[in-house]
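Dear support,

I submitted the protein below through the web form. The confirmation email said the job was done, but the results page showed an empty box. After a refresh the structure appeared. I'm attaching both so you can tell me whether what I see now is the final result or a partial one.
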Amino acid sequence: MTTPYENPTANRCYNQHMKKASLILSQLGNLPQFTPLKKQACYQKYISLLGAKWQKAIAFVYVRDNTLFVAVKHPGFKMELNYNRDLLKSVLTQLATLDKACSGLKANKVAIFHAKYHSVLQKEPALDTVPHYHELASQEFQVLSDDQEIKKRFEQLKAVIKQNRQQKQS
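What the results page shows now:
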């Protein structure tokens, strides 16, 4: 006797009634609790419509109370974007008219500010700033001084050199 999973006609019926992942995701995306995700996708589209120079300069954007807030990664970009406010508004208006999903993005004003934003994806590993050099000195030297304090200090120096050379070998 064959199981329903081994029967080709049963598999065909089973597969016809299965929902595809894209259908499930689109239905979930239409739920009200996921509207911030739609806005975030629109913000990403907006940034991608700007030139490569501005894409690198902008940390994130959002619209609140008919104002487009643009956060820049470096204060120098703030001045450049202040001169291009009309460009930023026009690109947002075009996106809102051409993309139905982003039709709610409308702004009369543009506010540009510097954000201390550091992308998680571009985070570089912290470098160890203390240089570690191998000991090049040798403890094989003579102390030709008669002063006992100076001899004591040189003996301490020899001990440190010897310890550093042993750490290099291990």
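Response: this is the final, complete result; the empty box was a page-load delay. Residues 34-114 form a domain with the GMP Synthetase; Chain A, domain 3 fold (CATH 3.30.300).
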